[in-house]
Design a protein that fits this description.
By secondary structure, the chain is of the alpha/beta class. The protein contains eleven helices and twelve strands. Strands 6-7-8-3-9-10-12-11 form an eight-stranded mixed sheet, with helices on both faces. The protein has a four-stranded antiparallel sheet with strand order 2-1-4-5, covered by helices on one side. It is globular, with a radius of gyration of 18 Å.
Length: about 260
Amino acid sequence: MTTDTTTATAALDVQGLDTGYLGTPVVRDLRLRVMPGEVVAMLGPNGAGKTTTLETIAGLIAPMAGTISVLGEDVAGQAAFTLARKGLALVPEGRALFPSLTVREHLRLAGGTSGAREGELLDMLPELRKCLHRKAGLLSGGEQQMLAVGRALVSRPRLLLVDEMSLGLAPVIVERLLPILRRAADELGASVLFVEQHVALALEIADRAYVLTHGRIVLEGTASDLRDRRDLLKASYLGESEVAAPAANGGAVGSVTTHTPQA
């Protein structure tokens, strides 16, 4: 996927974001973009601030500083339901399904009564066809994750945020699920920002990626370039100082950019 970033309005533009809990920031001066139809991965070790970032963008946490623009509109601090009406959908880490509702009831709640949308989604996620009348609480972990993603996609979001799709799932299931995000961009026109711990798989479907460590972006680049620079990826998971060293304290290494956090 190639987007002319000089003329296109970003689907998501985050600048100088500070966010956290109870007045204490866990993410500082975060800057990232997702262009229309682009799939962007957010990588990093546990506790880096990835989930906090997604929840802030989605309106579940109020930002402490910075701007969040969705399709050119400043939405920082707007409520989650308001952002949902603007075309933002979040697949949360815990899936947030209703155990007593069936698969079809979840899809109808999210997408209205449009049979065409449901049919389109089931063509993309055929495994859900056999589960339409089963309650979510009786589904396997993989089926529940498919439903969580399907519930988001049936609303035809313009911006899709996905938090840890692979959590608790077998690798073979992850290999089937992650490509759905690529299809969401290519076939539905959604812009996608997703958090993922399976780095190799994430870089197979993403256009670009950011790496967070201790609440700051320390590395960014195209997915193909990051696949070729496993040394920088490994260093980014060890800490900012390790990342900064190969690029002489911050800068470009090919098409990969390292960042030296400011004190």
